[in-house]
Amino acid sequence: MFVGIIVALIVTSAGWPAVKEAFFNRQVFDESWREIAHAFLLNIRIFLIAEVFILIFALFIAILRGLPGPVFFPIRALAVIYTDLFRGVPTILVIYILGFGAPALQLSGVPVSPLFWGIAALVLVYSAYVAEVYRAGIESVHSSQEAAARSLGLSRLKTLRFVIVPQAVRRVIPPLLNDFIGLTKDTALVALIGPVEAFRQSQIDVAATFNYTPYVCTAILFILLTIPLARLTDWLIARQRKRQLAGGAR
Amino acid sequence: MSENGTALRLEEIRKSFGENEVLKGVDLDVAEHEVVCLIGASGSGKSTLLRCVNLLEKVDAGRILLHGEEITRRDVDVNRVRRGIGIVFQAYNLFPHMSVLGNVTLAPQKVLQKPKAEAEAEAVALLERFGLADKRDEYPDRLSGGQQQRVAIVRALAMRPELMLLDEVTSALDPELVAEVLSVIRELAAGGMTMLIATHEMGFARDIASRVCFLDDGLILEQGLPHEILTNPKQPRTQQFLERIIEAGRL
């Protein structure tokens, strides 16, 4: 109903024919979508590579931050500084600083590819967020679980690996996915230091045709990527719940 | 391996949480194959005492000797010590993300490095012994409280401990489920397992214990044979405690 009113307002507005022509031009769409979709493969690549490193690195940070006792205070402090720093600085600045700064150092053995540094920047920024998500999950597992595992003779590390972390990760899948979706969109920021991904490609097409339809096309591609991700998570959570509560069989 | 058959010896155990001194110098000997029941009001220090024995809590003062070895020394390998001591908790503390079989085989595989097949075969044998064979693939949340607690006992037994610590293992159970757990403990006692049991089930303590210790305000106030302590306590505090228990219909 509400949506219907909004749509009606838009399509009856005075400027609608011009907007329709500029953003929803069928001909421009048909001509540009292949190129943009091809460039979008780079977004997916950036996303997948970054995600793997984020999931591992963030867990590492979260575990460092949870180390007990005064001995590990310096390590805990480092982990806190790291998360504060990279959650505080806008992603786009981190991408600029690393993308232009790191290659300019001209150190031998240090990659100069902007794509490399773009991904590195995303990993650093998103790991700070994901580490906090992991930490929340780890802290939500009751201390009695640790007591039970330790009482069986499992070391602290094995307790984390087999008892605490598996439960923690299951609990934080929804917020993790939230960050995944944010990451898919922020892959577009890597364009700012050079690599031609979908957003950059659509900018090029817009510049060539003086028509904004390629932007809409890019938006559709991002939506097509994120919706299946969301449904996949829903399915994973439902399956997990069913296995633990409803049905016994694996 | 032990001096005159002593499985466990506690000497002057003290433990405080902040300002609150929970254990005020507990002395206790448990002989091999002995079943010692700790009774006492909530907050008298029973659970803390068991957790200290399992090194889940660090004692502030005093020594704990397991088969003659001092396990409260700073350089002792706590993981090795805990292998020989099984503990079962009031709230079961099963791992909810693992099946029953997973719960029981985790420590034998990851701590004792047993091959999966061997660990599973042993686990299945134990589960069969305690009437849980058909539950091996269930997840803990699908089981009744009594079944969960029996699985927790099996999980501790899978490490073949020489000493079992039971911390109010029936307190979280519905009354009709208590019996199935107690019968498992009876079977363990009959098999000669050395046990230190914190319990509110006085009738059970009377039946199963070789010795009953009354813990009051962080000290063992009185100990002796079950019928002595439970029917003829000498200390006024013990009499008071038991009167309250009888009023509540627990004896």
Walk me through this protein's architecture.
The complex is a heterodimer of chains A (250) and B (251). Chain A has a domain at 48-196: MetI-like fold (Orthogonal Bundle), CATH 1.10.3720. Helix content of chain A is 80%, strand content 0%. Chain A has helices spanning 2-12, 16-23, 26-65, 73-88, 91-104, 114-140, 143-151, 156-171, 173-186, 198-209, 213-246. In chain A, helix 3 runs antiparallel to helix 4 (73-88), helix 3 (26-65) crosses helix 11 (213-246) and helix 10 (198-209) packs antiparallel against helix 11 (213-246). In chain B, helix 3 (100-110) packs across helix 4 and helix 5 (145-157) packs parallel to helix 6. The mean pLDDT of chain B is 91. Chain B starts with 5 loop residues before the first strand and ends with a helix. In chain B, a hairpin with a 2-residue loop joins strand 9 (211-216) and strand 10. Classes of the chains: A mainly alpha (250), B alpha/beta (251). Chains A and B meet through helix 7, helix 8 and helix 11 of A and helix 2, strand 6 and helix 3 of B.
Spans of chain A of at least 5 consecutive residues whose pLDDT stays below 50 are none
Radius of gyration of chain A: 23 Å
Structural class of chain A: mainly alpha
The protein's oligomeric status is heterodimer
* Helical content class of chain B: 25-40%
The dominant shape of chain A is globular
